[in-house]
């Protein structure tokens, strides 16, 4: 089964950068790394802690939280809270958990800002295109137009006050694949902090969130793969602290039919999968924002994508679009200000 959560379009080098400055620490901190499969992808935690026991305790708690989130937000598990909500589509308002409420409120905000280019009600279309990728044949047009009838953020009513969600039409299907991994990374960082771990990095496929820099460094150095990443070293290195970065593109999840390359990202407004090759890297104050913005920026034309990024506080983006055999690069206004790292910073 091709997992919706699966990705690896970006190669991210998660390395501490050397920095000659010294940070006053009363306790020596060592680097620990943990990895578990969650949400259909590898969930990786790098953290600094005084000893192995405290590192393991903190990471265990973070992974436990991620499992809990998966049981709420997954569209792959029939038993998830999300799927239970979808089964009640066409009925009355349904009480939801804090997590599902937060993610759906945020999703609706981005849907409104992008007038539906980002839309988690796109589930029926996502499923049709997922099957198309498996079979290497385009979705049936009749089924596509039937699916489109069930898609639209105006058909989902999220009420913060009553903590309920109502899906207007039976058959509606929500898909949080474009936002939940970023949220999970944020939540994992929060749990690590509760366990006294303030310097950590959480990587979920192409979504990475970091807290304070590794001791004695300016930031976490993260390499952003070039458009054709196979076997190549990253072209850009960022140095991030208390921030998140998401890179999405179709390096892994795409299908080529009749010489056209179709992405796993869909334009919910037309029902069509995004064509052509593009890599979008978004930096934002948190993972949920960078994840959602990144997907939205893949759907919108580069100019509208940059407008969206520029209008979001603390966000910056780099868009690389393939044009024939070469590529065009677009930078948002704040991209310039994102601290950059370099391979030489790696120790
Ligand atoms: P990845 O999963 O590769 O990290 P994204 O964060 O961009 O990439 O999420 C892509 C997933 O989001 C798709 O596999 C699908 O489940 C869902 N999706 C596709 N198009 C949209 C869209 N326009 N709006 C919201 N969700 C989408
Ligand atoms: Mg995303």
How does this structure look, described?
30% of the residues lie in helices and 27% in strands. The chain is globular, with a radius of gyration of 20 Å. By secondary structure, it is of the alpha+beta class. It has 8 helices and 17 strands. Helix 1 runs antiparallel to helix 6. The N terminus is likely disordered. An 8-stranded antiparallel sheet has the order 2-3-7-8-11-15-16-17, covered by helices on one side. It has a domain of 95 residues: T-fold, CATH 1.10.3980.10. The protein binds adenosine-5'-diphosphate (ADP) and magnesium ion.
Could you list some keywords that capture this structure?
17 strands; disordered N terminus; binds magnesium ion; binds adenosine-5'-diphosphate; 347 residues; alpha+beta
Please sum up the structure shown:
This protein has helices spanning 52-73, 81-87, 98-113, 123-135, 141-149, 180-194, 287-299, 302-310, and strands spanning 14-16, 30-38, 41-49, 94-95, 156-159, 164-167, 200-204, 207-210, 220-224, 236-240, 243-249, 254-257, 260-267, 272-275, 278-284, 316-323, 326-331. The protein has 347 residues and is α+β, with helices and mostly antiparallel strands.
């Amino acid at each position: 089964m091709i997992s919706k959560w699966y990705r690896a379009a970006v190669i991210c080098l998660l390395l501490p950068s050397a920095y000659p400055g010294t940070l006053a620490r009363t306790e020596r901190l060592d680097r620990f790394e943990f990895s578990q499969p969650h949400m259909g992808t590898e969930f990786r935690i790098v953290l600094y802690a005084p000893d192995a026991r405290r590192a393991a305790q903190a990471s265990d708690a973070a992974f436990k939280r991620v499992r809990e989130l998966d049981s709420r937000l997954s569209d792959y598990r029939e038993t998830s809270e999300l799927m239970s909500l979808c089964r009640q589509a066409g009925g009355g308002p349904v009480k939801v958990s804090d997590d599902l409420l937060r993610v759906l409120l945020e999703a609706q905000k981005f849907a409104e800002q992008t007038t539906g280019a980002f839309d988690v009600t796109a589930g029926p279309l996502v499923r049709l295109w997922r099957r198309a990728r498996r079979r290497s044949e385009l979705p049936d047009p009749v089924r596509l137009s039937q699916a489109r009838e069930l898609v639209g953020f105006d058909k989902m009513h999220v009420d913060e006050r009553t903590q309920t969600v109502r899906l207007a039409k039976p058959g509606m299907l929500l898909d949080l694949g474009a936002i939940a991994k970023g949220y999970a990374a944020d939540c994992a960082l929060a749990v690590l902090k509760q366990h006294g771990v303030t310097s950590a990095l959480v990587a979920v496929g192409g979504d990475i969130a970091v807290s304070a820099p590794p001791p004695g460094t300016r930031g976490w150095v993260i390499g952003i793969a070039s458009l054709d990443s196979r076997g190549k070293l990253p072209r850009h290195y960022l140095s991030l602290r208390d921030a998140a970065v998401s890179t999405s593109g179709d390096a892994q999840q795409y299908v080529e039919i009749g010489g056209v390359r179709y992405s796993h990202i869909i334009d919910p407004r037309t029902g069509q999968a995004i064509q052509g090759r593009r890599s979008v890297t978004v930096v934002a104050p948190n993972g949920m924002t960078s994840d959602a913005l990144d997907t939205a920026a893949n759907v919108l034309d580069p100019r509208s994508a940059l407008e969206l990024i520029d209008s979001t506080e603390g966000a910056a983006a780099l868009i690389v679009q393939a044009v024939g055999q070469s590529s065009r690069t677009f930078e948002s206004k704040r991209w310039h200000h994102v601290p950059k790292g370099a391979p030489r910073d790696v120790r």
